[in-house]
Amino acid sequence: MNEAWPRRVFGQRWITHHGNFGDGKTPLTRVVPDPEATHPILRGVEPFDAYSWLYHVEGGGDELAGDPTRLATGTTLKSYHEERHDRFPTSSPVAWTIENPKDSNLPGRVFFTTLGHPYDFRSDDCRRMAVQGMLWAMEREDDIPTAGVKVDDAADWRLTNAGFGGYRKQRRPEAPASREP
Question: What is the pTM of this model?
Answer without folding.
Answer: 0.83
